[in-house]
Every structure is written in C-alpha cells, then in structure tokens.
Amino acid sequence: MKNSENNPVVTLTLGGREWTLRLGHKALQAFTARTRASMSRFGETLDRYDNLVLLLHCMLLTQDSTVSREQLDDWLDEADISEVFTKVGEAAEAAFPPPTEDGNDGENPPIAAGTGGTA
C-alpha cells in the first residue's frame, strides 16, 4: 500500500476508524523499550503474537494517545486478525525495506560510471 516510492502508507480500519500504520521513531522507541528487544533481533521479536499486538498498539498510540490496550484487544476480537497483521507486516516492511535486486539497501546508492567515484 504505497502511494509513492518515498512515502509508504499503510492504512487499516480498526475500531470503526481508519488508521495510518507508520513504524516511525516514536513507535519503535516505545516498542523496543517495552520488549527490551534489540534492533538486530527485531524480526525475531515479531514472531510472538503478543509482540505483534504491542507493536500495533505502539503505532496507534502515536496517532491517539488515549487508545488503551484493552480497547485494542476489543477491536482485535472484532477484526480479521489475518488482515490486521498483514498490515502490521506491511508497515514494518515499509520502515525497513528489503535490499533491492542489485543488493543495494538504499543507504549507499551505487556510484554512477564516469563520476570519478570508487565503489
């Protein structure tokens, strides 16, 4: 669900409201503080359902600080869990896109031929 290459947007309707799921600094900071998970083990941490719910809660809290965990649990009881966590995964992937086919992860773009740079 990307509206442009540089502006990933993942939306989810939950609790009768449309949310924009963005795994940004605030959500990551809250999640890693609560789980004590290192960034190098972030993916492994998400293998646990309770951590997926916590990550979702952290993303929602960045938009509305009044969303309680109990409220989220009620919304999840009414939701299509598969769809919800597909969307959570899309938000995580948008924040940490996989390397491109050329092996470039976007951090250090390849140097163009003839520019005098070295690879």
* Number of helical regions: 5
Percentage of residues in DSSP E strands: 5-15%
Largest sheet: 2 strands, antiparallel
Q: Strand order within the widest sheet?
A: 1-2
Helix/strand-derived class?
Answer: mainly alpha
C-alpha termini separation: 33 Å
Please tell me how large the radius of gyration is. Answer: 17 Å
Helix content: 40-55%
Q: What is the mean predicted local confidence, pLDDT?
A: 83
Count of the separate structural domains: 1
* Contiguous runs where pLDDT drops below 50 for at least 5 residues: none
Oligomeric grouping of the chains: single chain
Series of H and E elements = EEHHHHH
Q: Any idea what the shape is?
A: globular
Tally of DSSP β-strands = 2
How would you explain this protein's 3D organization?
The protein is mainly alpha-helical. The chain has one domain. It is built from five helices and two strands; from the N terminus they run ββααααα. The relative contact order is 0.16.
List keywords for this structure.
globular, 119 residues, mainly alpha, 5 helices, two-stranded antiparallel ribbon
What is the topological layout?
Layout lengths: L9 E5 L2 E5 L3 H11 L6 H4 L3 H13 L7 H10 L2 H15 L24
Antiparallel strand pairs: 1-2
Helix pairs in contact: 1-3
In short:
The protein has 119 residues and is mostly helical.
